[in-house]
Every structure is written in structure tokens, then in C-alpha cells.
Specification:
8-stranded mixed sheet; single chain
Length: 377
């Protein structure tokens, strides 16, 4: 019996040199992976930058009107404030009586709302001071007026008196909405005063003409008002300026007390009391009743108000409802829940047919005598 001895071949021992070579190989593979990853990232970054630049060029190249108006749109459009200039600017050396911290300028009327908005009456402010402060901003004011159908006859007196008394010394744009552009008078304007005629639809009912003003104002703010002015004042055309109306009326949102209801109790105010209407105000809510014949604000403030009111008017129409005082009812509903930042006294919207009141030291904006039924029909 022959014994065969099998000899197995053993692996050579693992040397330090082999260990080093293996580590180098692993590192090279990891480095190559990282290199490929960075290449991909760079390519993606370049593509993203190119797509972004092309998109921005496309957007900048468009000249269409604003379709989706955002709150920041008007903020961007407002003039940039030169803070350095404002910090160094100072008022001229004005001479005026020292104000008192212990005595009210007038005690026969209320001059402050519960939400700290001033109520503007003759004798409650120093116009020279606020006018000089306003001048530092180099602002422009737009005066919006609607003269449709027979109301066009009031334009000559409205514009003539506006040139005499409205925002004297400031840059003003008159925006006349009318269905008869040829009937707008060609009056002589002072320096920095401009007249723009905007063609408007002559709706059959005067109520529709009245309510359509909210849509017209907010749509024209979207398209071009915001490019031209900082403040808007909206007024009825069958009125005339009887004394100076200046920057004391300007603020974020300004409303005027109705001359027939500035002393009326809350439950008797002529709000819309039917809850089916979007203009509905409960009997235990509300502050004052404001007249929609004269209001003002920043372009942004007026845009928000007119847009909300017009949307509410549309909802009412879909329900077959018309608010008791048309757009004025929706205007008052808005102001219950979005308080005006300044309130104007009845001095700014008076009708001489109501006689005189001892509290009225001035009548700055007054109604022109007319037959309402004849004009509206």
C-alpha cells in the first residue's frame, strides 16, 4: 500500500505593499466618482442659470397690463425714498402760535376717532406745516371724476374751481371718465397739472353707472394710475370747490362724513340691513356713515377698497340683489372692517340746500344746485 502525500499550495503572505496598493485603488475610485458628481452638478447649475435668465428676459420684455395685481406691485412702483435727503431736509423757518398739550383746538366737535384717526375740521391743523412736510416727498395726486350722460354739463365748473382750489402748488392729474370725450372742456391748466380723458360706458341706469365706478377705478389703477400718481382723490362731478382743499385730506384711506348723518345714532344709520346683500351691516355695528361722493387715499389703499367693493357688487348681482344705496352701501361696509386712517368733516361735502350749521367754519366742496330726477333720467 502506497501512501501519497498531497501538498497544498498556500497563498503567499499579505504584505504591506499590497495593503497600500489596495487603499490607493479605492481612493482613486472614490475620487473618480466625486469628479463625475461635481461635473453633473456644474452642468445642472449652468442649465438652471440659463433657464432663469431666459425666463427673466421674457418677463422683462412683456409690456402687457398687470393681470394679477399683487400688493407688492404698487409698493415697488412707488418712488424710492431718498433717505439721506429726508434726514438732512428741514422745514423752513415758519412762524405760528405754539400748540397746547392741555387744550383742544376745538371743543364743539369731535376731532379724533376711537381708532386714533383724526377728523379734519377747520381750525384743527396748521396747513403751512403739513404742506411743507408733504412737499419733501415730491408726490403726485390724481383727481378722478365721472361725467357720464347729462353729468357732463357739470365738468366746466368742476374743473374751473379745481384749478383755483384743489392741491394748489402740487402736481395733479385730472382723470375724467366720460362717454362724451368731445364735451370735456379745454381749460387752461397751471404748471404740473394734466388732464386725461378716459372713455367710459354709458350704462342705461344711473345706479349701474354709480356702481361701475368701483370697477373702473381699480382696473385703471392696475393699468396705469399706479405709474403716474401716489394718491387718488375720487369726487362726484356735480360738485364744485368752494375753498382750498389740500394735502390735509391725504392719507392711506380717507372718507368723508355724510352731511345728513354725521350726528345720526348707529341704529338709524342708512346702512344695508338685509343680510342677503354683501353690503349687510348688523344693527349693532358701524361707526359713521360716509358719503361716496368724496374720498381719497394712496393708490394702494384705493385699489384694495375698490376691488373688494366691486367683488361684493358682482356677488350681489349674481343673487339678483342691489344694495340700498348702491356702491355707497358697499363702501360703508368696507369701512366698518377696514377703518379709514383719516376722516373728513362735512366741510368737504356740503349741500347748501341743507342750510348753515354753526359747527361749519368753512364749506370747501359743495353740491351744485340741480334737479336730481331730471339729471338722472
Amino acid at each position: 500500500m502506497v501512501l501519497v502525500k498531497t501538498v497544498s499550495k498556500e497563498k503567499p503572505p499579505f504584505t504591506v505593499s499590497d495593503k497600500v496598493n489596495q487603499d490607493v485603488s479605492v481612493k482613486m475610485k472614490n475620487f473618480q466618482k466625486m469628479k463625475n458628481y461635481l461635473k453633473c452638478c456644474c452642468v445642472l447649475l449652468v442649465i438652471f442659470v440659463l433657464v432663469f435668465m431666459v425666463s427673466m428676459v421674457h418677463i422683462w420684455g412683456q409690456q402687457e397690463p398687470i393681470d394679477d395685481f399683487k400688493e407688492n406691485s404698487l409698493a415697488v412702483s412707488q418712488r424710492c425714498i431718498d433717505w439721506d435727503k429726508l434726514q438732512t431736509a428741514s422745514l423752513p423757518n415758519l412762524k405760528y402760535a405754539k400748540p397746547s398739550a392741555l387744550q383742544l383746538p376745538r371743543t364743539d366737535v369731535n376731532i379724533l376717532t376711537p381708532w386714533l384717526a383724526p377728523i379734519i375740521w377747520e381750525g384743527t391743523y396748521n396747513y403751512d406745516i403739513i404742506n411743507e412736510q408733504f412737499k419733501q416727498g415730491n408726490y403726485s395726486i390724481g383727481l378722478v371724476v365721472f361725467a357720464v350722460k347729462k353729468y357732463v354739463q357739470f365738468l366746466p365748473e368742476f374743473l374751473r374751481t379745481a384749478e383755483l382750489y384743489f392741491m394748489v402748488g402740487h402736481k395733479v392729474h385730472y382723470y375724467v371718465f366720460t362717454d362724451q370725450p368731445e364735451a370735456v372742456p379745454n381749460i387752461a391748466l397751471k404748471a404740473n397739472r394734466f388732464l386725461h380723458v378716459v372713455e367710459s360706458n354709458p350704462y342705461k341706469r344711473w345706479q349701474d353707472i354709480s356702481m361701475q365706478r368701483m370697477e373702473s377705478i381699480y382696473r385703471h389703477i392696475e393699468n396705469h394710475f399706479y405709474k403716474e400718481v401716489d394718491y387718488l382723490v375720487c369726487a362726484d362731478s356735480d360738485m364744485k370747490f368752494n375753498d382750498y382743499v389740500g394735502v390735509e385730506i391725504l392719507d392711506e384711506l380717507v372718507a368723508t362724513l355724510h352731511p345728513a348723518h354725521y350726528g345720526t345714532e348707529r341704529e338709524s344709520l342708512p346702512y344695508e340691513r338685509r343680510n342677503i346683500s354683501e353690503a349687510y351691516i348688523p344693527v349693532d355695528e358701524g361707526d359713521f356713515y360716509y358719503m361716496a361722493a368724496f374720498y381719497a387715499g394712496t393708490v394702494h389703499g384705493i385699489y384694495k377698497m375698490t376691488k373688494v367693493c366691486y367683488d361684493a357688487i358682482k356677488k350681489d348681482r349674481r343673487k339678483g340683489v342691489e344694495a340700498v344705496w348702491h356702491e355707497e352701501s358697499h363702501f360703508n361696509k368696507y369701512l366698518v372692517y377696514h377703518k379709514p386712517t383719516k376722516v373728513l368733516s362735512p366741510e368737504y361735502i356740503w349741500d347748501n340746500d341743507m342750510g348753515n350749521r354753526e359747527i361749519l367754519k368753512n364749506k370747501r366742496f359743495i353740491a351744485v344746485p340741480k334737479d336730481h330726477d331730471e339729471i338722472r333720467n
